Amino acid sequence: MTRSAADVTRLGYAKKPSVAWRRAVRVAAAAMLLVSMALAWSRGVAAWQHGVYLFRQWRLFSWRIPPSQVAFEEAPAAAAQLLKDPSYYSPQILFENPDNRPPPGWGPPAIYLPYDASVLQPTMRRLGYGTVFAGRAKGGPGGDLAYLVWFGSAAVGGPNGHIVRLHTSIYRPASWRLTSKISVAAEDWDDDLRIRVPNGTRLTLYCGQLDPSRENRFTMHYVLDGQDGQIEGRFVTGASESGNSARHRVIFKILSGPTTDVTAGSYFNGLLNYHRKLKVGETCKA
Question: How far apart are CA 230 and CA 72, in angstroms?
């Protein structure tokens, strides 16, 4: 039995989609597939990049640097040799004279900056800082902490020599969350250690080493004008001034060796000549 066109219309049979419509559907499906693949790829790339970031963080604060690694070298010949290594660089130095010229016999210092530190803290090289020690410590209820001991040199050539300063930054490490980055948890400028290097002398500072027998303690070897010395650093946690939170800091102390002048915070207990950094209204107490 045959059906007429009117019968087909009555039965509601739909016509086949047009070629243009089918092509549009295929293009849309392909576009959605490509977008999904791109999103998956970008998220995979982001996860990979963050994994590399966490690895660099772990490697820096695990601190496997040997004690023979020089962190800061002022002797011109030795510094020139170190600067051949890409881990070292020479910062821009200011000179305390009208022409901003180096004093006689002076050469650019070599500063050690591990690649991991330069990635996590990209401003360090621009500001002329180097890294002498990095470590981890218990941070209490807020989670574990990481700390970085860095240093920098002041202007050279003044009548009283120049200052090399050690400072500590306390960090909250990045987590597995893709958007997580290392962040500063505390900055304590009161406990900086400043060693004055007289004109005509040279300072060599070696990378710090963790004390395996005492938790949160490390030591750094240095040579000032050919004489050996040792600096101690201790990560401590105490109550803040308000008493409502914990205060994390690293306290430095010169254990032995030469120095002409050391300035530090009120918790500095150096065995050699030193004085406290004064607060407003205080008098000098050596």
Answer: 14
